[in-house]
Write a structure and sequence with these properties.
alpha/beta; 8-stranded mixed sheet; 13 strands; 38% helix; globular; EgtD_Methyltrsf_superfamily; transferase; MeTrfase_dom
């Protein structure tokens, strides 16, 4: 029986334009590479959002917590929790009664996060969840009491428009009018800065993209020769979309043992691996309304590069 990854690869490589989901970037090696990306000089989103949470964390915490009673703070894609710790500290300092439920698909990343939180924030109640977003959203419906949901790091931009709207509607479904969402949005800006953030001079982003092929070799018995694949990315200002690709540098065949199938690639044929959309504040408000949400408050860094937006279900 095929696992989820194998089924996804079988479907994705049979498409007219081959495509694989960025959710499969994050095996243990991919998670480590992304930690490196966040520290790169070109990669502004992490620094911008960190500045928001560092300088406005108390105000954000006040917007996120319910008027009374305990609540669950569930974070989708928690990673190393570097930025989230700023908000957690603000909530603890404000004597908020809550449990933190970080969600991440990487077991090693979760182990590291839980250990770090135990050392740095021993008073924090942590209920870790190793799962993908879909599983976490299903579990969210069963959690009693008030809820606050975090989706930081501009991850919302990885969804194409239709999937993004569907995802937000799924997020909104288990929430009451008193519950809150905090979502990070990377804002539109100089197109050159955006493109550089996804094609850094050191080649770490290229290694991150190519690691997906290494994962397929290891887990599915594929024989991708990374010497004949390249990373490519570009930014389209009209749509606000960064699109990343793996490019076949020659005509070649790749056999995937788990599928018992061989795939043909023409020279310079691409596998589409990631979208990263950038937004305007007007687009964010429109998207929220379409999903049955309303904008409660917008927090931005000084340069206006990034926005953390507090959302609630419409009454």
């Amino acid at each position: 029986m095929l696992n989820d990854l194998a089924r996804h690869v079988a479907d994705g490589l049979r498409k007219p334009i081959k495509a694989l989901s960025s959710m499969y970037f994050y095996d243990d090696a991919g998670s480590r590479l992304f930690q490196q990306i966040m520290g790169l000089p070109e990669y502004y989103p992490t620094r911008a959002e960190f500045a928001i949470l560092e300088r406005q964390g108390a105000a954000i915490a006040a917007e996120m917590r319910p008027a009374a009673g305990p609540f669950t703070l569930l974070e989708l894609g928690a990673g190393d929790g570097l930025k989230t710790k700023l908000l957690l500290r603000a909530l603890l300092q404000g004597s908020a009664d809550f449990a933190y439920a970080p969600v991440d698909i990487s077991a090693s990343a979760m182990t590291g996060l839980v250990a770090a939180l135990s050392r740095e924030l021993p008073a924090l109640r942590v209920e870790p969840v190793v799962a993908d977003y879909a599983t976490a959203l299903r579990a969210l419906k069963d959690r009693p009491g008030s809820k606050a949901v975090l989706f930081l790091g501009s991850n919302i931009g990885n969804f194409d428009p239709a999937a993004r709207l569907d995802f937000l509607r799924q997020l909104a479904a288990p929430l009451s009018a008193a519950d809150r969402l905090l979502i990070g949005f990377d804002l539109q800006k100089d197109p050159r800065r955006i493109r550089a953030a996804y094609d850094d001079a050191q080649g770490v982003t290229a290694a991150f993209n190519l690691n997906l092929l290494t994962r397929l070799n290891r887990e599915l018995g594929a024989n991708f020769d990374l010497a004949h694949w390249q990373h490519y990315t570009d930014y389209e200002p009209l749509t606000g979309a960064v699109r990343s690709f793996l490019v076949s540098a020659r005509a070649q065949q790749v056999h995937i043992g788990a599928l018992n199938q061989t795939f043909d690639f023409a020279a310079w044929e691409v596998i589409h691996t990631e979208n990263s959309f950038k937004f305007t504040l007007a687009q964010i408000s429109e998207l929220a309304a379409q999903a049955g949400l309303r904008v409660v408050r917008v927090f931005q860094d000084e340069a206006g590069d990034f926005a953390d937006v507090v959302l609630a279900c419409r009454d």
